[in-house]
Amino acid sequence: MTSQTTKTFPKSVPQGLIDKHSHYQRAIAIHGDIGGYKNYSDALYKLFTVVNPGAIFTPLKEYNEANKLDSDYFCAVFEGMLHDALGLTRSGEWDLMKPADKRVALAGIGKDISKLIGRLKRHDLDLSIQGHIDQGLVDAMQIFEGDSWRPARESVALEATTLCDVLTSVKKELKNHDATSLVIQPGSKNVKLHYFTRRFAEFMSNEYGLIDHDLIASVANVYFPDHDIDSEMVRFQLKPLIQAQTNT
User: Fold this and answer.
1) Residue 81: pLDDT over 60
2) Cβ–Cβ < 8 Å for 82, 36
């Protein structure tokens, strides 16, 4: 990968994505593989070096122009979608669970938090969080107290906030946490491919108001070359999700 250069990439590839790839390569060269940069770089490189990248990027350019998507915005949301669809940025296990299983997991975490709160209070370990926050973050934070914003380090509220306060807040947040899923059959041997096509379809629907099954198939074949994916397969994979959404 060290020999990759932007000069070899076809003109159809958006410059913004090439710049992102170059950034990852420079970071790897200077700092080594930090923050999954090699995975991010490889994901883009595979897309840039397909036999006919114009079959992917030309229709995307047309959709962007038709919907007046800013090029920087497109590059950011497209790459974010790609990383998410490939399981590079979030827990793949969570993404590939059914909604019912997610709700069970969230309920179980909530019970564990309640037990931890009980133990902390029982052993008089419900400490202030102030001494456990990075001081650089504290220096940058401001808290609205009374009728004005004050530096966090001067806030009585921060000093009075304890570990159990934070855990209680997290527990409340979990009750409203998004438990929806793009996966209908997590046990399927093709579950990662299903998630990829559905995440790509979600991106297209949100940004363009349409789903190009041929385009999704073209990109899916880049990352799942052993499946020989076509537009009909993509339609078939999206059908259970569309039915589930219709029935909710």
Assistant:
1) yes
2) no
